[in-house]
Amino acid sequence: MLKDKKILLGVCGGIAAYKTSFLIRLLIKEGAQVQVVMTPEAQQFITSLTLSTLSKRPVLTAYYDPENGEWNNHVELALWADLLVIAPATANTLAKMAHGLCDNLLLAIYLSAKCPVCFAPAMDLDMWIHPTTKSNVALLQGFAKHHLIPPGTGELASGLSGEGRLAEPEEIIQFLIRFFDDDSLPLSGKNILVSAGPTYEAIDPVRFIGNHSSGKMGYAIAKLCAQLGASVTLVSGPTNLPTPKGCHRIDVTSAGEMLTACLSAADGADIIIMSAAVADYTPAKVSDKKIKKTEDLFEIKLKKTTDILAELGKRKKSKQLLAGFALETDNEEDNALSKLKRKNLDFIVLNSLRDKGAGFSGDTNKVTILDKQGNKTELPLKSKEDVAKDIIDYAIKLIPSTI
Question: Which of 121, 350, 362, 394 has the most CB within a 10 Å radius?
Answer without folding.
Answer: 121
